[in-house]
Design brief:
Layout lengths: L7 E3 L6 E4 L11 E3 L5 E6 L1 E4 L2 E3 L4 E6 L5
Amino acid sequence: GTDFLTPTFEGTVPGSFIQIGVHGDPNAPPASITAQPGGAILMFAPRIENRGIIRSPDGQVILAAGNAVY
């Protein structure tokens, strides 16, 4: 079966993307990513879709979508 709670990371080439959230079962709870208190969650990809929950208590969450990171 499919694990609806796990974020999906697709590919490592141009056009790659990150999907966070429910994929398939509309009754499944949303996927979640949680950092330790004071931690950080950083995601960089040409495309990012967040339909889940991202938590970083007293920390940072950065989702950066684009073709280049400088």
